[in-house]
Structures
1.
Amino acid sequence: MKKIITAILISTALLAGLCTADDQKEMPAMDEHKEGMTGKDGLKQLMVHHAVFRTPIPGAVNSAAFFELKNAGKHDIIIVGAKSGVAKMTQIHNHINDQGVMKMRQVEKLTLAAGDELAFKPGGLHIMFMGLEPNISEGQMIDFQLLLASGKTIDISAMVGKVKKHKM
Ligand SMILES: [Cu+2]
């Protein structure tokens, strides 16, 4: 894991297709009243499912969280970062294949278009927690936030648990 972490490079345009959207589109939807929604400040159209925080290996200072996001609203949502109280640094990461070697890169901007879904999953997008506080244990709930371009935040609660390994 440490080796992988040292390979992190800051990338501003990892997902070229996702980095071109207009920041001004994001607006709270006022007409969505479905179950299973999360968010605040009018962002009830953003749904989070299957959030899990990978049980840290004993002694490890890093871990990751995975979940599925659905934008059930009528406006695109621009995600520009993440934060948490359980790690010194919390970032959105993705994996890229660099000549056969999978490397993690920070993602500084993600657009979730209206109606679209986005999976944060092993081997792909994930929330990376670096410099974890000690004694995080299975079954515990970890809270973190997604930061939006609008300045709003999305609260996510993920249970600490095992995550299936993912083959590339
Ligand atoms: Cu990562």
2.
Amino acid sequence: MPSTKEDYHNKLQNALVSANLVLKALEHEIDGSEGEKRINNAFGSRVDRAAVKKCIQKLTNPRNKLEFPHGAAVDHSVNAIAATNMADPGKGITFGTFFIGNTEEDNDMRVGTIIHEATHALCGTVDWFDKHTFEPVDEVKDKTGNYHGYLDSNLKDLVRSTGIQMHRNADSYRVLAMKLEVPTV
Ligand SMILES: [Zn+2]
């Protein structure tokens, strides 16, 4: 049995390789009518499409290629799948206790998580939108009533209601890259 540390390293390394391949494929798939449908699903039809594409290009730029151990670390005190230092995103991404699982599905989760966190680090994306204005907010002190951009939180509402600022929603890139469906009703 590999040690926990090796196990983390291997799973992170495998997920990074997959994440880079998924992003490269996405860059080619995103143009055309199929790409437009997928962007509408993940961001809403009013999104600034050029900004979405620009972010994807940043993620696939060999200069920014997602690497390990470049800033990536596992911290068992992080009670989340992963976290990006929002005050200084360039400092990298920390992966927490829930990052590791043992099924194929878990690998998809890891790939999606890496893509989500990488958009925080490289594209300045956020997870929260103001409850009144639907504008993206960098830091939320009082989360009550504000919209959380995760697929399993308020993404459905945001896709329906938010304007061109949706290119700043981190989880929309995960949804786009992993071909996840946002419920329409
Ligand atoms: Zn996030």
